[in-house]
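Morning!

This is the sequence you dropped in the shared folder:
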Amino acid sequence: MVDNELIYMPVNQMETQLEAITTTIAYLEKKDSCDPEVLEELKKERNRLLRELNVHQR
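The structure's back. Tokens below.
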């Protein structure tokens, strides 16, 4: 992938990913043995998707 190359996903695919990531975050936060680095990366990805879908409040 070229650094400046943009990848476009259909909105419904991004919404599906957002739902899956949000569910995973909720599950991991309830577990006692959650890796904080994994959780942080998932939250970053969730925020990126929210921004792309233009629903993220700054």
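Headline: Residues 27 and 38 are 12 Å apart (CA to CA).

More detail when I'm at my desk.
O.
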